[in-house]
Amino acid sequence: MRKIVSLLFGVTAAFIFLPLFSVQGEEGTAHEITIIRNAFKLNPPEITIKIGDTIKWTNTDERKHNLASIPGSGPTDELEIFSVMEPGAVYSHTFQTPGEYPYFCFIHNQMTGKITVAK
Ligand SMILES: [Cu+2]
User: Fold this and answer.
1) How much distance in Å is there from the Cα of 57 to the middle of ligand 1?
2) Domain 28-118: which CATH number of 2.70.70.10, 2.40.50.100, 2.60.40.420, 1.20.120.530
3) What is the structure's pLDDT at 1?
4) Ligand 1: distance of its center to the CA of 85 in Å?
5) Which pLDDT value is given to residue 24?
6) What is the pLDDT of residue 10?
7) What is the model's pLDDT at position 111?
8) What is the pLDDT of residue 80?
9) Between the CA of residue 101 and those of 21, 42, 46, 89, what are the distances in Å?
10) In angstroms, what is the span from residue 7 Cα to ligand 1's centroid?
């Protein structure tokens, strides 16, 4: 009986404490990228982050920009970055797969950037 009680206690403790540790491990840092006003540029254009980190883009320009991954260029087949950014718009994305994510503005092709997710 004592064995069963201690076993039950152990299993219960594991269920209570394990999620706390795993949630802590997945928390990432937030990084900001700005679409500069009247410049057709991103600041910073390139950035290296860690797995689980989030990028927050803000459009401080007076015109619309469409941010998009360059098709077939990232570590996954998914289009990781895509947002129609009206003036003042904010867009966030969390990166879970390491690799390089080149992206550009679909309207102004000279606006390019790159997110590198380190292993
Ligand atoms: Cu643009």
Assistant:
1) 13
2) 2.60.40.420
3) 55
4) 9
5) 44
6) 54
7) 97
8) 93
9) 29, 15, 10, 21
10) 60
CA of 18 to the centre of ligand 1 (A): 44
Residue 67 Cα to ligand 1 middle (Å) = 7
Q: Which residues have CB atoms below 5 A from the ion given as ligand 1? A: 65, 105, 107-108, 111
10-residue stretch averages of pLDDT, the chain, 119 residues long: 54 49 66 98 98 98 97 89 97 96 96 97
Dist. CA 19 → ligand 1 center (Å): 41
b/e sequence 35-66, b meaning 16+ C-beta within 10 Å: beeeeebbeeeebebeeebebebebebeeebe
